[in-house]
Structure formats: C-alpha cells, structure tokens
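Subject: for your reference before the review

Hello V.,

The reviewers asked for a structural picture of the protein, and I figured it would be easier to keep everything in one thread rather than splitting it across files. Below is the amino acid sequence we used in the manuscript, unchanged from the supplementary table.
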Amino acid sequence: MTMDIYLHTVLAMGAIGAAYYAGSYFAKPAVEDIVGSILETLEKEGFVETSLDKDGDKELVPISELIANAVKESKKTT
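And here is what came back from the structure prediction:
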C-alpha cells in the first residue's frame, strides 16, 4: 500500500491540528500561573502596586493615582 497525496495530507493536517489543540489546552494554565507568579513577585518587591476589583481579580494601580495619594497624605502630615 502506498501513501497517495490525499492520505498524506489528511494525516499531516490531523497531526498538526492535534498538536495545536493539545498545546493550546495545556498552555493556558501554565501561562496564567507564570503571569500570576511574576505579578506577585513584582508586587512583593515593590515594583508595581495592585488592588482587588469587585470580582476579586488583581488590577494594576496607575502611577498617577499613587502620586496623587502620596501628595494628599503629605499635605495632611504637614
């Protein structure tokens, strides 16, 4: 039995599709874990500031908001 071009194409596309879906299935939890770990490390080291939103997810706090809060606090103390 020889492999004609149609059988070869079907097998190749099936293998590519299976690899794509397996990669996308297994990569999602890993990417979320990596990004979460990086954000936690940056927050712990003091490089970024985060707050919890109404859904309980972390969101980054803009620098302008941090500066405004620091100015307000310094005016209260002086």
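For the response letter, the relevant points are probably these. The longest strand covers residues 50-52. Residues 1-47 form one domain.

Happy to draft the paragraph if you're swamped.

O.
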